[in-house]
Specification:
single chain; mainly alpha; two-stranded parallel ribbon; 14 helices; globular; FA_desaturase_dom; DES1/DES2; Sphingolipid delta(4)-desaturase DES1-like
């Protein structure tokens, strides 16, 4: 695992990424689980209720924006934080689900549904997100390709509690705009909706998944699952080890992977609170933007994986 955890063990924040000289762990675990439990393949395929769930959330959020259009800023901010943020973050994770074509068997229908789900978010990102997110799965941690990992600029600047607090508040914008600077690709209702997106992606319980998924708190683990109640509102993205092991399984069935093959997940670190993860990230002086696993590109890491 290279230099994993060396700085953390000394109580000092890492000044470079943790470098791994092995392939990402999910492909090998996927093969092991499928060999032992082939029935997991029965879970592959779209969620037939995905369209209905997305349509309900989009309609509710747009209706809320309509009734708030003449309200004062304080009321708009309060409703955005305690209500709209949950809906917009739900839609953000619906777009994540659609990037894996888990609503329809025909990919283009997922793309159009993603554009529809994007409407209340206020920032067009659904089409671009799919391109970068699929690379995150195929090339997890690969230097220069996986745009889920913070930049060196973030690592050099975000080095104390205050800077980490500001970074958490703005993390959705770092997440969204980082690829445009580091790996640009050809480009393929107002205040309430923008605020719902902004606060829902910052210092907010649901935004804890951005940190919990791959930030290295345990020096020998690079992907972490969350088993808590917010999975009900986030397309079960908390089952993140299970998701990376089986990207073709929709969120509403990911819990079944753990039920069928518990021995592969019960003994690795996981979380029960995303809010606690945010607190840990800010307060732990050994953890920062560099607390991510990176690896150099290899022939095996660039091979298309059959079960993705």
């Amino acid at each position: 695992m290279g230099n994993v955890g060396a700085e953390a063990e000394e109580g000092v924040m890492a000044k470079d990424f943790f470098w791994s000289y092995t392939d990402e762990p999910h492909a090998s675990r996927r093969k092991q689980i499928l060999a032992k439990y082939p029935q997991i393949r029965d879970l592959f395929g779209p969620d037939p209720l995905a369209f209905v769930k997305i349509a309900c959330v989009v309609s509710l959020q747009l209706w809320t924006a309509t009734i708030l259009h003449d309200s004062g800023w304080l009321k708009i901010l309060m409703v955005a934080y305690f209500f709209g943020s949950f809906l917009n973050h739900n839609l953000f994770l619906a777009i994540h689900e659609l990037s894996h074509n888990l609503a329809f068997s025909t990919p283009v229908y997922n793309r159009w549904l993603g554009i529809f789900a994007n409407l209340p978010i206020g920032v067009p990102m659904s089409v671009t997100f799919q391109k970068y997110h699929l690379e995150h799965h195929r090339f997890q941690g690969v230097d220069g390709i996986d745009m889920d990992i913070p930049s060196h600029t973030e690592g050099h600047v975000v080095t104390n509690i205050l800077a980490k607090s500001i970074w958490v508040v703005l993390q959705l914008f770092f997440y969204a705009f980082r690829p445009l600077f580091l790996n640009p690709k050809p480009r393929d209702f107002g205040s309430y909706l923008i605020l719902s997106t902004f606060v829902g992606g910052g210092m907010h319980p649901m935004a804890g998944h951005f940190i919990s998924e791959h930030y290295v708190f345990n020096p020998h683990q690079e992907t972490y699952s969350y088993y808590g109640p917010l999975n009900l509102m986030t397309w079960s993205v908390g089952y993140h080890n299970e998701h990376h092991d089986f990207p073709r399984i929709p969120g509403n069935k990911l819990h079944k992977v753990k039920e069928i093959a518990p021995e592969y997940y019960d003994d690795i670190s996981s979380y029960k609170s995303w809010s606690q993860v945010i607190y840990m990230y800010i307060m732990d002086r050994t953890v920062g933007p560099y607390s991510r696993m990176k690896r150099k590109a290899s022939k095996s890491s660039t091979t298309t994986k059959k079960d993705e």
